[in-house]
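Quick illustration for those who missed Monday's session on complexes.
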Amino acid sequence: HHWYKNRKSPVTNWPVLGMLPSLICNSDQLFDYFTHDLLDSCESGTFKFKGPWFPSLDFVLTSNPMNVNHIFSKNFLNYEKGFEFREIFEPFGQGIVTSDSDIWKIQRKSLHAIMVKNNKYLNYQDMVFRHVLEKGLVPVLEHAVKHGTEVDLEDVLQRFDYDNICLLALGFDPKALSVSFPVVPSKVAFHDIEDCLLFRYVLPLCFWKLQQWLQIGAEKRLTKSLEIADRFLYDCIAMKREKLREKTVVEDDEFDLVTALLVEEENLSVSGKVTDKFLRDTAYNFMAAGKDTVSACLSWFFWLITMNPSVKTKILEEIELNLPTRYKEQNMIMSFTSEELNSFPYLNGALCETLRLYPPVPVNHKTAVRPDVLPSGDTVDGNTRILISYYSMGRSEETWGKDCLEFKPERWVSDKGDIVHVPTYKFSAFSAGPRTCLGKDMSLKQMKIVAINLLRNYQVEMVEGQIIKPGKCITLHIGNGLKVRIKKRVV
Ligand code: HEM
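Prediction with protoporphyrin IX containing FE bound:
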């Protein structure tokens, strides 16, 4: 009866073990397995994965845009991160990424007021970005050009991201991006925490809870790394409080997130609640959300344009054509306003195409509060884990056509040369609905500026013989990095 019931399933549903063996066998290429082995065979773009009988690891996997619209917008209140998710990601505390209901609303309101609405903070963002470009990225690239050394471009960009996010959140420059490629303990700790949390996510709760109690394996590593990260965060917060006590006016170049929260306390919905723990949780979540995403996207972008030389040529032509006259001289560090960046629709298309094929957040998590019927016709029970595969959505033939696996920036440029906008429930790299990414505009702006500076001034050549594939991580990195040689480009 069991075999008969499951005869149409694209993977074997074993008695007792469920579909776990197939998942384990494909853990090396999980997102392709979700896309091609599970979802491609379901007309509704939704697959019910059966885990072992005990403990239950069942989940509903979907890449159907109508379901995404329903889960993230139309029936938003029925789909939360959920208690189990918060338990697993407990180092995030009561921050925006893992919270629901009122706690999430307070976090979202305060972060939105600062990251999107506060002009002083937006100016600070631009200042920090220019600083990291000028004092971090360019000297490291120049060093690589001068010595002809091979560099891991992904590592360079991750360090760039880390310095940028630390300055944005805490006003502290860890100088992770410098020619000596130093080991930065807080950066290593954040990375380790992410690694250990991924373990927790795929293991049954009772298993990692036991490990935690015994303080062995990944849980032991997690405790140590969390101590390092917390010490770093609380030290930075104490320094900020001390600085503010000494000053009456905060300069524009000191207006980081923690300072902004302290200064703007009365105007935010958190009056009287800006405790050290609140600041720690807010900063931790902000850093976790923004720390590796830009570098992941840029790494895939440089690899994709190297594999597609005609795209690279077109981007360079667009840069030369639309570059403001003040930058016609070579070797200058170029920064742009958002309006100026609108003159690069093809570059925008190439970045969107990268995000479509390699979304830095490949899968999102939701929990159904009450039973529901999805627009695809699939039913979900209350307390069901739902995984939304952004990776599979970007590779759906139904949404993107027969050439969905090809890298074609042209699909994002209209016949008139304008940017084509795709609804967020179809192109969900930054998620959709009320929980859309708060760093979207900033990230797109920063990625364009890095791309223009690098492409115009340097020639980035891939080292032969590399295997480029996603690594096992919460963020979609290139597993083994991206080894390149950098040369100066002559215009
Ligand atoms: C290419 C770059 C980025 C991508 C693709 C991206 C993608 C996403 C996605 C998919 C989510 C939804 C996650 C979820 O629901 O759990 C998200 C949320 C978020 N992102 Fe980003 N992100 C990027 C960069 C950034 C940066 C640089 C920051 C901050 C400096 C940031 C801040 C946030 C925050 C605060 C949230 C939580 C929003 C909420 O739950 O209300 N993101 N991002």
